[in-house]
Amino acid sequence: MRRALIAVMILGSLAAAVVALRLAWQSGLEWVVGDIQASHIDGNLPPSAAFGPFLQRDLKAYFTQRGIKTPIIRYLLLREGPTQSGIAYPKYYLWVWVWSGTTPAASGAACVEAVDRKRFEVTEFLERRAILSDPDSVRSVFPAALAAAIRAQAASPTFPTLPH
To answer: Structure pTM?
Structure first.
């Protein structure tokens, strides 16, 4: 009986040690991943003074490549700050209005990645028309937490005032 009691105590201690090690490892892993994510954000976001000009430049280039002549861009951040997932580039989610000269040309939800502190890359653009015709398409492209805001923005038929 005494041996069985000692064996149970040893097994209990070993189980507690295993649980403690697992928790410590998970905490350490979370800390490492969080540290990597933070350094990845810092290593890819442009300086704050360059954020707007770089984003404008790269959105203009994107829409020019898609056939819009002389695009004029206005955007709204759908979420403050970048979204970081793992070690991917930091992402920003936007609603974008595009004019060709003074004529409204496109509007929709966009995802852009900040790359090497020098540029943004548009990874997704879902036009307002596509959102209105298939509202569920938003969830397949954008985070679920932003789906309602994107659908609400698409439901607004007006373009804002043309930027100067």
So the answer is: 0.75
